[in-house]
Design a protein that fits this description.
With 283 residues, this protein is an all-alpha fold. It has one domain. Helix content is 71%, strand content 0%. The protein is built from twelve helices and no strands. It is globular and about 60 Å long.
Length: 283
């Protein structure tokens, strides 16, 4: 494969939001594996296509409808993929039960509020500094961790007293993981963010933000041993991912290579899932 073909493939793959959608799917599969839940094919398909549609709408906005200049081949591809993804997601939505539909609508509204103009002085929730990170972490954790519990147990999941403590700690771990993975993006976008947004790097500074990421990564790892149930392969997998988290946080800066955050950082959930299910560290 020539360098040009490789670069073009990578550009289409990442810029069309396929990569980030697969990352979300891997986080979902991590949840079903860790909690010993059944993997729901309809949900993971919905998660993939709804993520592709949402992130393309956020990134390309009005360009998906029309553009002043002749659209590029990438834009044409994204338009087609987004339309297909929206259609598939809407069809699958109709097959979910009422509880799950309410869950999707509620988090969907929050997702739109995060991306679309809702305030006059500060047009997007994503411009509200700290709030941006926590909204993304909350939505990702909800769709990849709470959803499989809701699918398996419905609203009766609160009665699962045997697992509730571990679920709470796993939820916190998932939330922290997403926050840590956002740090490279926060540093990358630091110069582009508006001054009033007061993002984490703007508030703490670059060096302190990295130390914060390292601290959160340590807490993320330690919480494993607070849980009542864990196995060696999970511990060893989390230890490897912890080292990778420290590496990517340490290498993060305001000037990054084009695909450092959008490809390598977002590939961490995929690597985590592959290591965990393969049991390679047990061999």
């Amino acid at each position: 494969m020539s360098d040009k073909v490789y670069r073009d493939f990578l550009k289409y793959y990442v810029d069309s939001s396929v990569h980030v959608a697969l990352a979300l799917c891997c986080l979902y599969m991590l949840s079903t594996h860790l909690m010993n839940l059944l993997m729901d094919l309809k949900w993971i398909t919905f998660l993939f296509f709804s993520s592709v549609a949402y992130y393309n709408i956020v990134k390309f906005g009005g360009l998906l409808l029309k553009s002043k200049n002749k659209p590029t081949s990438l834009l044409i591809f994204v338009r087609i993929l987004t339309k297909i993804s929206l259609l598939v997601a809407l069809v699958l939505f109709c097959f979910f039960n009422f509880e799950l539909q309410i869950f999707i609508v509620g988090h969907g509204l929050l997702s739109m509020a995060y991306a679309l103009p809702v305030l006059s002085s500060k047009p997007q929730l994503r411009n509200h500094g700290f709030l941006k990170v926590f909204i993304v972490a909350f939505i990702w954790t909800s769709f990849t961790f709470l959803a499989p519990i809701l699918i398996e147990y419905g609203l009766e999941f609160t009665q699962q007293h045997t697992f509730i403590w571990d679920w709470i700690l796993l939820y916190i771990q998932r939330f922290l993981l997403v926050v840590i993975l956002m740090i490279p993006f926060e540093l990358r976008d630091m110069q582009q963010d508006q001054l009033y947004s007061r993002t984490i790097p703007q508030y703490f500074g670059i060096s302190n933000t990295k130390w914060l990421g390292a601290l959160l990564a340590m807490v993320w790892l330690i919480l494993t041993f607070v849980r009542e149930r864990y196995v060696f392969v999970e511990v060893s997998s989390r230890f490897v991912i912890w080292l990778i988290l420290l590496l990517i946080v340490g290498l993060s800066s305001t000037k990054q290579r084009p695909y450092f955050a959008s490809f390598w950082v977002e590939a961490v959930p995929m690597l985590f899932w592959l290591i965990l299910i393969s049991g390679i560290l047990v061999l």
